[in-house]
Amino acid sequence: MGSASMLAKRVLLTETPVMVEIQKLFRLYPDCVSLAQGVVYWKPPKEALEKVQQLIWEPSVSCYGADEGLPELREALINKLHDENKLKKSSVMVTAGANQAFVNIVLTLCDADDSVVMFAPYYFNSYMSFQMTGVTKILVGPGDPDTLHPDADWLEKTLQKTIPTPKLVTVVNPGNPSGTYIPAPLLQRISDICKRAGCWLVIDNTYEYFMYDGRKHVCIEGDHIVNIFSFSKAYGMMGWRVGYIAYPSEVKGFADELLKVQDNIPICAAIISQQLALHSLKMGPKWVTDQVQSLVSNREVLKDALSPLGNDAIKGGEGAIYLWAKLPDKYQDDFEVVRWLARKHGVVLIPGISSGCRGYVRISFGGLHEEQCREASGRLKKGLQQLVSEGMVP
Ligand SMILES: Cc1ncc(COP(=O)(O)O)c(C=O)c1O
Hints:
By secondary structure, this protein is an alpha/beta fold.
């Protein structure tokens, strides 16, 4: 007993979370600034926090709640989905964040021998959710080299020729790590392809409010579509752990099966967190979009920091909180570059390999106030100038 061979193969064969590796870098080089983790710099709305402070004495906060979420929060979410997202036929389950929502969905929809589809660069936690639940046949489709949009032609061919048909296709919109937005007609085409093939489409809308330059986020609905949402970034609620699933009401049995999974993982999302979500939601979408627009200057400062790589190398930033950049061809080991930038220049990025793309890096522009971001950007620019002109000098 007590040996590695006794640990589950599912978990042993799951990637190591990139954030765990990144945290090691911060322990080694504590003066580094982070352009790594996908977080925002703001806190939840003051009014909502004050309300929750009073609620902490309520006995109900210390009890279990309904598995699917507080009725008043679910009602508010149904209204929000209806009014803002134009999702009119969806049921809601509140989860402990969007990551737990995704695991719930994988456990509810996929068997271990099913194949599933994602697009590179993919969201690493979704990839790991498949692996750790035993869904190891993960087909990774290409993104368009210019736009990084999922390649719908590839998807169509792949769903036609793969037998048995893949069970589920997932996209993140706008993307992590790409920071690109999938335009509504392309999303609709992906949905139509999935519907024709008899395959689920799971859309992660964690960054629905994080849209720039006049773009507008659109959701789509269907009896083969599951939408996932999160309170984490929108309301600065990362540590409170609240997300939700909007799933098709008309699919018989979906709610019952989803409840089995929910009852065995969190039972319910923390009640106090759900209360904070409810009172944050009352602030309305403008509260969020006002915070989000403050990130535009960070994005611009960081685009400039990436300029030593050449303008063609810089993608993303249309939505979410990410830029995605190609390193010069000879730097295929992106993690080595990330370690060097941390050690030599005091700035931390996410290596592209964690999203299935060697030779790239992800830069997050959400976590720092403008002034700190300028500092980080200065370090990054200096580092990249050196990388391009002299290489990774010791
Ligand atoms: C695309 C995407 N989905 C889900 C999550 C996780 O969100 P949550 O904190 O709600 O679990 C993140 C966080 O970075 C994300 O980028």
